[in-house]
């Protein structure tokens, strides 16, 4: 059996973080008590989580020559970064983050930077997606047309010595426009990961109305009937997942793992996504046929990892390694 390998075609940023008494309101000026710079970007964070979980992961993106040090942090976690493009003319992307000292919640403004620089050899998926790739992770911090090109090409590939095609995972964050959502090739997605707000925006764009069962309503729409995993995170309320199992969608309503304390929620969603994909990759390596119990285990592990990520400052630095996650799971089960 071919060992699982994930290609992350996404973003690398520097997170410029400001500790504030509360998230700034329109027209308001407030003082920050603390400021720091750390590696980030949704793609880099997920790649770091995948590396921390012990999987083989390749990061494909772009940074500016003004700041390549985030790549060193990825390498320390086992991520392959050899083919990340270094731009001479465009700076590394930035995320300007407010962290509320009241409750740890965050607000983020993005500077696209090198993430949106046209790089022809990176934007052509035929050069990077091949039969050795078992999983593909995509988000929305690079040009959407590049993401779509990778989705469409992945649909045509099968891994070596296997009958199944590449497992394409998509977290549409930041959320595309309504028109972009309507034209997106959803049938090329195998795993969709959204938070509650993103799920509501997606349903509103495609159906034009809202109701309480957002993710279940998405599952009923034609574009999502073939999406194997529909996962909606709900912060402290846990997550709801609808997974295709033996031709039927099984719904799992999972509680959130309680963190020991909440310091910074910035990297929790990316940690969850990374560990979920890592769980799928570990199952692939074991040649496991999915069951309700193995699916619950994948989701539970991702949830515990995400809960641990909110206990430490920094999006990437807060991501726990697999051994720490297993130890926390063992402690929670006693």
Automatic annotation (TrEMBL):
The gene is RBK1. Its cofactor is Mg(2+). Its main location: cytoplasm. Belongs to the carbohydrate kinase PfkB family. Ribokinase subfamily. Residues 9-321 form the Carbohydrate kinase PfkB domain. It catalyses: D-ribose + ATP = D-ribose 5-phosphate + ADP + H(+). Activated by a monovalent cation that binds near, but not in, the active site. The most likely occupant of the site in vivo is potassium. Ion binding induces a conformational change that may alter substrate affinity. Catalyzes the phosphorylation of ribose at O-5 in a reaction requiring ATP and magnesium. The resulting D-ribose-5-phosphate can then be used either for sythesis of nucleotides, histidine, and tryptophan, or as a component of the pentose phosphate pathway. The keyword Hydrolase does not apply. This is Ribokinase. Keywords: ATP-binding, Carbohydrate metabolism, Cytoplasm, Kinase, Magnesium, Metal-binding, Nucleotide-binding, Nucleus, Potassium, Transferase. InterPro entries: PfkB_dom (IPR011611), Ribo/fructo_kinase (IPR002139), Ribokinase (IPR011877), Ribokinase-like (IPR029056). The active site is at residue 270. One of its GO terms (biological process) is D-ribose catabolic process. It comes from Malassezia yamatoensis.
């Amino acid at each position: 059996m071919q060992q699982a390998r994930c290609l992350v075609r996404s973003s690398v940023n520097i997170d410029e973080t400001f500790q504030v008494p509360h998230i700034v309101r329109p027209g308001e000026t407030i003082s920050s008590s603390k400021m720091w710079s750390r590696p980030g970007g949704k793609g880099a964070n997920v790649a770091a989580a995948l590396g921390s979980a012990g999987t083989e992961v390749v990061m494909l993106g772009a940074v500016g020559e003004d700041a390549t040090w985030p790549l060193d942090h990825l390498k320390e976690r086992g991520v392959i970064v050899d083919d990340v493009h270094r731009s001479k003319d465009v700076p590394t992307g930035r995320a300007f983050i407010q962290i509320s000292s009241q409750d740890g919640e965050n607000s983020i403004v993005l500077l696209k930077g090198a993430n949106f620089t046209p790089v022809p050899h990176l934007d052509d998926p035929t050069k990077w997606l091949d039969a050795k790739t078992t999983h593909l992770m995509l988000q929305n911090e690079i040009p959407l047309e590049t993401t779509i090109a990778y989705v469409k090409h992945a649909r045509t590939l099968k891994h070596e010595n296997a009958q199944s095609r590449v497992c394409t995972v998509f977290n549409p964050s930041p959320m595309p426009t309504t028109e972009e959502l309507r034209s997106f090739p959803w049938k090329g997605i195998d795993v969709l990961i959204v938070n509650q707000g993103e799920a509501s925006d997606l349903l509103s764009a495609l159906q034009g109305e809202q109701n309480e069962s957002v993710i279940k309503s998405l599952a009923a729409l034609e574009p999502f009937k073939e999406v194997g995993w529909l996962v909606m995170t709900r912060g402290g309320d846990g997550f709801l997942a609808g997974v295709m199992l033996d031709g039927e969608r099984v719904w799992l309503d999972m509680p959130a793992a309680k963190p020991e304390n909440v310091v910074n929620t910035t990297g929790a969603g990316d940690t969850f996504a990374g560990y979920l994909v890592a769980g799928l990759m570990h199952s692939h390596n074991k040649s496991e046929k999915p069951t309700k119990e193995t699916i619950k285990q994948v989701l539970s592990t991702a949830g515990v990892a995400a809960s641990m990520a909110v206990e430490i400052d920094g999006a990437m630095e807060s991501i726990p390694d697999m051994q720490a996650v297993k130890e926390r799971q063992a402690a929670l089960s006693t």
